Amino acid sequence: IDIEQKYGSLTRGMIAARKARAAASKSNGQSATGKSTTVFMTLRNGLQELVTALRDALRGDVITGCGVSSIQPQGNGYTLTLDDGRQLEADAVVLATPAFVSADLLRAQHPELAAMLDAIRYVSTATVSLGFDATDFDHPLNGFGFVVPRKEPTRLLACTWTSTKFTHRAGPNTVLLRAFIGGPRREEFVGLDDDALISLVREELHAIMGISAAPTVARAYRWQRGNPQYDVGHLERVDQMEALAPPGVFLTGSAFRGVGIPDCVKQGRVIAEQAAAYIGQHVPAEA
Length: 287
Ligand SMILES: Cc1cc2nc3c(=O)[nH]c(=O)nc-3n(C[C@H](O)[C@H](O)[C@H](O)COP(=O)(O)OP(=O)(O)OC[C@H]3O[C@@H](n4cnc5c(N)ncnc54)[C@H](O)[C@@H]3O)c2cc1C
Description:
CATH topology of the largest domain: FAD/NAD(P)-binding domain
Bound molecules: flavin-adenine dinucleotide
Strand content: 15-25%
Order of helices and strands: HHHEEEEHHEEEHEHEHEH
Shape: elongated
Number of helices: 9
Number of domains: 3
Largest sheet: 5 strands, antiparallel
CATH class of the largest domain: Alpha Beta
């Protein structure tokens, strides 16, 4: 989104980035500030780093690896029952779960809100990562990958040339590609088994990029109902859902006001402030 807003389109942004890269490599890979230039950002050791950093930064008891199975109003707050039967007393609850999970947790007391949460559409995607020995690979990888326009007949949504986009993601003399399958147009492919998904991707990459080398590693991953879809009128419905949420219950996450990780971080900050303000106003300070 940042790239689109700055350059007017993703394509123009990519062209500008390529020019910036070329200029940077001429000046020994360094920008005027002395830092390497790239338009993409990620966490060096994968996105688990974000979760681990949050867990380490939070004070109080942090419980991971155990879901919430119900939320019941209790006095001025709520009782949460966990999947393992434990119960927690809460003054406020921030639901950062997928909208369909939040719907299940709120349905008994708030059926209208639950119905609206359930109506947020989700689609599934799969990714296939293929690793190659660079010596077997004759494509120049002169870019970061490609996104397939809707009118093209291919079964892929996109392919990231991971080892070009993030050089630390693959070892020396190794090429790593990640293809995306499924989404709103081709969701049925997500149901294929691993071998079929990998074959599909290899066929498409052969047709699009001319790759015939056999991968040295191939992995398929599925993200079932991992992508919320915003239909027309979404933000108005989000306003209504927020108004329907009971006191002390806050909704956040990719289903609401932006799907990307930066959007989720931004929403999380806003909601954390709202929850803290709610507690400050409604919960008597401990003596
Ligand atoms: C293949 C793929 C590639 C993507 N690439 C990018 C990218 O390059 N850049 C980008 O910005 N975004 C990307 N996204 C989007 C981004 O990853 C998601 O939008 C973001 O992770 C959503 O965060 P979230 O916290 O809302 O939801 P989630 O990450 O889905 O988190 C929801 C959490 O709720 C937990 N949960 C579920 N049920 C319960 C329960 N009953 N009790 C307690 N907890 C529960 C789950 O375990 C999970 O941890 C990508 C998404 C996909 C699927």
